[in-house]
Amino acid sequence: MSNRDKGNIYESIACNYLIGNGYIVCDRNLSAGVGEIDILAKKDNILVLVEVKGKSSEKFGHPLEFITKNKLLRIKKAYNLLLSQGILPEHEIVRVDLIYFKANSEYVHIIGDDWIL
Fold first, then answer.
1. How far apart are CA 44 and CA 26, in angstroms?
2. pLDDT by residue (tens digit) across 19-47?
3. Which of 41, 76, 79, 109 is the most exposed place for a label (fewest CB within 10 A)?
4. Which residues constitute the domain of residue 35?
5. What UniProt keywords apply to this chain's record, in alphabetical order (predicted)?
């Protein structure tokens, strides 16, 4: 199974989780050349850009270690570019959430209150 296939599985599970928790999933895998948004969702009039990370082991690091300032910057650049192209709607509040999967397939949702764009 390719990493892309694994990523699609993780993202599908994350979408189901979000829907089950009152989010509206608007789109997936929005690529802008400067970065990618894994899941675009809405809840309570907040546009949420969801980054999904899955690792089959923590041999090379915890999934949170892969959410660097540079990664957040690429997500922000992708959002701004897609916004300027009219592909994404404007929202007053936009934040970045993270859903990461542990090696045992449990997942954790981190609401990105500190990552509001």
1. 14
2. 999 999 999 999 998 999 999 999 998 99
3. 109
4. 3-116
5. Endonuclease, Hydrolase, Nuclease
Cα–Cα distance between 80 and 12 in angstroms, integer? 25
| Residues 91/46, Cβ–Cβ less than 8 Å | yes
Backbone angles phi, psi at 19, to 5 degrees: -60, -40
Q: What is the 3-state composition of the chain as percent helix, strand, coil, each rounded to the nearest 5?
A: 35, 30, 30
Number of domains in the chain: 1
Record the pTM. 0.86
* CATH code of 39's domain: 3.40.1350.10
Distance between CA atoms of residues 32 and 56, nearest Å = 27
